[in-house]
Write a structure and sequence with these properties.
52% helix; mainly alpha; single chain; 150 residues
Length: 150
């Protein structure tokens, strides 16, 4: 089983589809090397139904030749218009995953830790506060303004 996330599998499938070569060969590569490894449970609900439909489309024919499978039999009988629609559906699902913010398995890492979350011994401290035109950091400049206002 491939450990890549669903988003990474769809990205790989899409990259397979945009390479040169016969469309049905590119679909085979995208399906066998990427989409066959997608765990449906990782997909958001809206993409999950599109993926199920895609899977049904790609396995609708019964294999008639020994060593064949439903995918190969379906692809063999598929018209070029149908193959183009299948390729487009893969790209649409990747776009839907991107819009939904689903990059399952991806971890969001902050660029820096805020001052409140930084430990003095932590080398990943937040950058120093911006200095106003007077030269003192904003935190130190504020009390002097308050004294002048009194």
């Amino acid at each position: 089983m491939n450990s890549n996330s669903a988003w990474e599998q769809f990205q790989g499938a899409t990259l397979s589809l945009v390479r040169s070569g016969a469309l049905k060969d590119r679909i085979t590569n995208a399906y066998r090397n990427h989409l066959a490894h997608v765990d449906e449970a990782e997909l958001p609900k809206d993409v999950r139904e599109a993926f199920r439909s895609f899977h049904r489309t790609m396995s609708r024919e019964r294999p008639l030749v020994r060593g064949d499978d439903a995918f190969r039999a379906t692809l063999r009988k598929m018209s070029m218009d149908e193959a183009e629609e299948v390729a487009c559906s893969v790209v649409r699902m990747l776009c839907a995953l991107q819009r939904s913010g689903t990059r399952a398995g991806a971890q969001v890492v902050p660029f820096y830790i805020t001052e409140h979350g930084a430990d003095e011994s932590d080398s990943r401290k937040a950058p120093p506060a911006a200095q106003p035109p007077g030269g003192a950091p904003a935190e130190e400049a504020a009390p002097s303004r308050n004294r002048a206002a009194r």
